[in-house]
Amino acid sequence: MNRRNFIQTIVATAALPPAAQANLNVVEGMDSPPPRQPIQPWYQKAGFGLFLHWGPSSVGQIEISWGMYEDSGKPNPYWPVEKYDALADKFDPQNYDPDRWMEAAARAGFKYSVLTTRHHDGYALWPSDFGEFSTKQKLHGRDLVQPYVDACRKHGLKVGFYYSPNDWHYNPPGWPNRSFPRRDGEMHHSHPQRQGLPKWVDMPLSEMQKYFDQFYVYVKAQVGELLTRYGAIDLFWWDGYDWPEGIDIHGEDMERYVRQLQPNIVENDRYFIWGPNKPFGDYNTDFESKNPSKQPAGAWEQCEPICGGWSYHGENVACKPVSHIIERLVRNRAWGGNYLPDFGPWPDGTMSPSYYAICDEMAGWMKHSGVSVFDVVAGPYPERSDAPVTVKGNEWYVHFLSRQQQTATLTGVHTPKSAKVLRTGQAVDWKEEGDRVVLTLPAGVSTDLDEVVEVTW
């Protein structure tokens, strides 16, 4: 964005509602960070969200944003970056049907959804008045966010937006980050420092801050659009800044702005410069595509791609089976966490048959066992159970994740009132050994999916 476009961006703030115009620029002189509020109760009760990565990259069946780099798979037919950008001219989802997406998602048990409104490549799925790379320029002003919001609400899913404050399309003269794909011809690598190449120009931090502050006005303005155009938004999923330590990213200012526009919103913890310090947000996202080694403190969420990558990679890629999705969901719920599996819509706006097959199989399991993962709290696993346990009131839900596990031992407990298999209603036998209760599944009852025993005390 050059100076002329930057001035146009500032002028365009008049298009925002008054609430979003207020404090659009950085609020200086804050004496204290914004007060923390308890996370909205719905989030930890819901437990299961649908992540959706979508945009022009789906046309090339290449990873969203990371496909801008030469080393994003070899050979990369969409490098140099101008070839990746040109995918936006072919992105025209004439069969876009989020209503069908969300109908299937609701049957499968998803309680909230998160759509990538703008990923690192900078392409905004709504007609933004800020920046130069959105459906306003490339899709005749068509808004792809509103139908998604409407479909979520129609089918009872909480509405979530992913928004990357990084924008690899943004490149004014003098831009200090040399690793942005368009910044320097030698920067073919998504992580140039691994090649021994400098990521940043040799510039004093104070000068670099001026570039960030210009960029921040643009980011904040787009956030204002997202949080004022679509009614109440339930969740905002940030994805971090790629700037040097020491840059002031105006986190307190942004936190106040978001809460001002959407007082009841849930935010993740990624409004930060990538690193260990996460001063903002309501829940922990440290476990992307990996499992925690012990129960995390507080609210947390695990996200991971299900079919080949975050975005659409073609129909020949293998998807993780439903048994994997249920196992991850159950293990996370047994430790008080949420699970956010990801799918990539096709470039025409439809979802793959694999997505619908997974949703159908999930729906079958949810009919009998969904009660064991929603509106529950973490159980005493593994300290007092050798199988994952979720708890609701006087019920413990004991999860037999493997056909090979036919018994589960609970310790530090008294005599149960009853125990039954949720799927079949069959009674489950147990024996008591001091303060231990050993549950045994009925012969031949277990399946390839999680078999849940409800124990009532």
Structure description:
This protein is α/β, with parallel strands linked by helices. It folds into two domains: 3-368, Glycosidases (TIM Barrel, Alpha-Beta Barrel), CATH 3.20.20; 379-456, Golgi alpha-mannosidase II (Immunoglobulin-like). Helices cover 25% and strands 16% of the residues. The protein contains twelve helices and 15 strands. Strand 6 (300-305), helix 11 (322-334) and strand 7 form a beta-alpha-beta unit. Helix 6 packs parallel to helix 8 and helix 6 (98-108) runs parallel beside helix 12. The longest helix has 22 residues, at 205-226. It is elongated and about 75 Å long. The N and C termini lie far apart (63 Å). Mean pLDDT is 93; it is low at 6-11 and 27-31.
How would you sum up this structure in a few lines?
This protein is α/β, with parallel strands linked by helices and 457 residues long.
Number of domains: 2
Beta content:
15-25%
Number of β-strand runs: 15
Which structural class do the helices and strands define?
Answer: alpha/beta
Q: What is the name of the CATH topology of the largest domain?
A: TIM Barrel
Spatial order of strands in the largest sheet: 5-4-3-2-1-7-6
Form type: elongated
Going by CATH, what is the homologous superfamily of the largest domain?
Answer: Glycosidases
Summarize the helices and strands and which ones pair or pack.
Elements: H1 3-11, H2 18-21, H3 41-46, E1 49-52, H4 57-60, H5 81-85, H6 98-108, E2 112-118, H7 135-138, H8 145-154, E3 158-163, H9 205-226, E4 235-238, H10 251-261, E5 266-267, E6 300-305, H11 322-334, E7 337-343, H12 353-369, E8 377-378, E9 389-392, E10 395-400, E11 407-411, E12 418-421, E13 429-433, E14 436-440, E15 451-456
Parallel strand pairs: 1-2, 1-7, 2-3, 3-4, 4-5, 6-7
Antiparallel strand pairs: 8-9, 9-10, 10-15, 11-14, 12-15, 13-14
